[in-house]
Amino acid sequence: MSPTVAAPDLVPPVPPRSPRVWMHRNLFRTPGDSVVTVVSGTVLAYAAYRTIRFVLITGRWEIIERNLTLFMVGRFPRDELWRVEVAIIVALGLAGLAGGLVASGRSISDPEGLEPDAGDWPTRVRTAVARLWPVLAMIMVLLILAGTPGPALLAIAGLAALLAGRRVGALIPRSIRGYVIGFTFLSPFVVVAVITAGGGVGWDQWGGVLLTLFLAVGGITLCFPLGVLLALGRRSDLPAVRVVSVSYIELFRGVPLVALLLMGSLTLQLFVPPSWAPGPIIRATVVFTLFTAAYIAEIVRGGLLSVPAGQTEAAKALGMSPTRITAFIVLPQALRNVIPAIVGQFISLFKDTSLVSIISLVEILGVAQVITQQPGFAGQGLTAETLVFASVIFWVGSYTMSRESQRLEAKLGVGTR
Question: 143 or 171: which carries more pLDDT confidence?
């Protein structure tokens, strides 16, 4: 007698929902939902109308157009701007190199790293535009405001350096990939060397977007490894290392960032001779690094606690040393689990760079305030235009970091087993 085979369950096809059905189920299901939808829609429509009217009709953007260079580089000597242009090209080349290394690395969907880029060139272009549309839109706005061919040529050269660096990064052998990734962490210092080499250009002449990006990138680059070391030190079995790490973390987490900036700017000269004291930009970078590293340490410590102890015990049973267990088993999983919190702290550092105005450094918001006091614009009520422009720059940077963080989480399978 042949066994009985159960017939598969037949699921009837779901008919496509019309826009009217979707709106009824999601927006007007109940009278209360209808009231909320109408009120919210009215408020959003009015806000959108006022925003579009301000951007396209009533906004006086000539103050941004005339001071665009000041917004970008501050008081950097205009005859030495070629140094900034070379630095931008070098930085984009290094960014492309890092992107190529990451794209050719292992992931959940491609564990052997055999498919660095999926799809043809049109697909890749559409993917890049979907990922980086805020940055691309901001670049287009800047090119329109510039009104000269120089920035457009710089954008083309930067794009070529980015693509070339990505291609080179994808071709680097896996055996030396780790060393090259370590080199890309030095990219901010390479950029600084290119900018300041020769010409008598001092860091006190920096400002605007140039200063903001240097403080943010430099602080992020330095605070991350320091924070990881502090997290490991706080869990160390050596009492001296643990006490020093805990004391550092609790000290810097308990003092406001503004107070640390003022202390670094005003009280450092009481302890070292003025000739030995670094410039205000270096002091601000050190303060951002030390302050953010304390928070990164606590975030990483939480990630270390999330790794099951059984994995460490299994590695010990296999004869692995404590250093190798931490480097290859515990730390990668810990960092993977806390990617959202780490990137959130980086975004906070990026926005906190606006606090350097209290120590007489003119970053983006500082420029936005200064240009409204120029003879041609004083007393004309153009503060809204300058602050909106500065806010958009901050939003583009923060949103891009957030989206790239989410993409990295998906690539590494954060939240999945």
Answer: 143
